[in-house]
Amino acid sequence: MIRIVKKNEISDGEIFDRMSGGADVSATVSAIIADVRARGDEALIEYAAKFDRAKISEVEVSAEEIDAAVDAVGEEYMNMLRRAAANIERFHKAQLREGFVINDKDGIVMGQKVLPLAKAGLYVPGGTAAYPSSVLMNAIPARLAGVGEIVMVTPPSGGAIPAQILAAAKVGGVDRVFRCGGAQAVAALAYGTSTIPAVDKIVGPGNAFVAEAKRQVSGTVGIDMIAGPSEILVIADGASDPVIVAADLLSQAEHDRRASAVLVTTSAELAAAVSAQIERQLAVLPRVEIARASIDDHGLIIIVDTVKEAIEMSNRIAPEHLEICLDNPFDYLSEIKNAGSVFLGRNCPEALGDYMAGPNHTLPTSGSARFSSPLSVDDFVKKMQFTYFTADALATLADDVDAFARSEGLDAHARSVTRRFGRKYE
User: Cβ(169)–Cβ(134) under 8 Å?
Assistant: First the structure.
């Protein structure tokens, strides 16, 4: 049963505790990373058998296997993937940016170049569900950014990669696919094996082992974020339909036993009705065991006095997904400061964003929306700046550089400028 509280009956700390959790897996992950660095593909094959019940002889998925997967899913499914891809591409194309040049026409030129990464590694989770949507969300921004090579890793759960995932890789423009998952896949992408190339950046969500592995290899490679379990926060009033609100909360609860579903409402009547609806809908949900654990352990309904208080609470929590199930939702958008992705109005379920709307569904979790952003084209580019001065232009700043450098006690810095103008120190 989901817990219902009034705002003065629970602290922010208690809310965060309920929305988080999980064991420390750092030592296990560290050992796996070291093993993959030492033994490469041999370790990957052993871990596939151990963790994924998969007996594999080849780590890489062949082009023939991908083509067979496309045939297996059929044209109707492929067309659905193409429609989703078109929407995702439309949104992410707007994120493309160019460099700039500042030319003062007095001997000074400065600028910035925007360069695509050479290689990007996409992690696509497996396990209790297959996520072809994550393939598209990761691959399309990378392709639009101009990444030189896009490689993908995904667990071969039970011995096979779902055809839907391979079909999505084809639509998304993935160059190579590898059958490995978990911390071992992250290690392979970070350090390379005889089969899997080392990449410049690893992106994509995963379980606690994947998140910890990304944390440990960060610095050796870039990472997008360290993602925790999925989250949804719904702001709703008494005019909301409890059947719909309950359904939206359960859409995230079924992801993971540690996923959190939170309703913040101005209506005690809605709170009670949503709680009852959750129980009714859980009874007929195929993933009831996962969703039940999520709701009982991490679900929460908080009753507040005003919509303003609901928004203030949401901004403190900084949820991954935020639904504003209110009339005139754009009236409140400017007040939302911290959220990964915001779904406006009574006809915009979070699941729309998971699949077809276009904005990315790889989002900051665990309150990191306070300082992090959704996955975007920006994650697959880097910026390089450049500077050019003529001798006359340098002369105009030489004395300032000299004084500034000496104020920091860095005489060699100062002299690297003043020597150009014949000043001697010996």
Answer: no
Say yes or no: do domains 3-21+229-358 and 26-227 share a fold: yes
Give the C-alpha separation, 4 to 234, whole Å: 14
Taken in order 401, 407, 412, 413, the sign of the CA dihedral is: negative
pLDDT single digits (tens) 232-273: 999 999 999 999 999 999 999 999 999 999 999 999 999 999
The closest of 194, 188, 193 to 221, measured between CA atoms, is 188
321 is catalytic: yes
Per the CB < 8 A criterion, the answer to whether 361 and 336 are in contact is no
- pLDDT tens digits along 376-404: 999 999 999 999 999 999 999 999 999 99
User: Where does 225-306 show beta strands of DSSP type E?
Assistant: 231-236, 260-265, 300-303
pTM over 0.90: yes
Cα 144 from Cα 88, distance rounded (Å): 11
The strand pairing partners of 115, in sequence order, are: 382
C-alpha closest to that of 270 among 298, 246, 300, 294: 246
Alpha helices in 163-241 (DSSP H): 163-172, 182-191, 208-217
Cβ partners under 8 Å of residue 83, min gap 6: 356
Q: Which of 254, 320, 323, 350 is catalytic?
A: 320
Look up the CATH architecture of domain 26-227.
Answer: 3-Layer(aba) Sandwich (3.40)
* Cβ atoms 87, 356 nearer than 8 A: yes
Could you tell me the two tokens for 161?
């990669």
* Three-state SS at 222: strand
d(CA 47, CA 38): 14
Q: How far is it, in rounded angstroms, from Cα 179 to Cα 59?
A: 5
Domain spans of the chain, in order of start: 3-21+229-358, 26-227, 390-421
Q: Name which of 153, 155, 126, 129 is nearest 54 in CA terms.
A: 155
CB of 211 closer than 8 Å to CB of 228: yes
Catalytic residue selected from 321, 323, 350, 361: 321
How far, in whole angstroms, is CA 230 from its chain's centroid? 11
- Report d(CA 51, CA 270) in Å as an integer: 43
3-21+229-358 has CATH 1.10.10.10 classification: no
Cα separation of the two ends of the chain: 82
- What are the helix (H) ranges across 40-131? 41-52, 63-93
3-state secondary structure of 152: strand
Q: Would residue 320 show up in a list of annotated catalytic residues for this protein?
A: yes
Confidence of residue 22 (pLDDT cuts 50, 70, 90): low
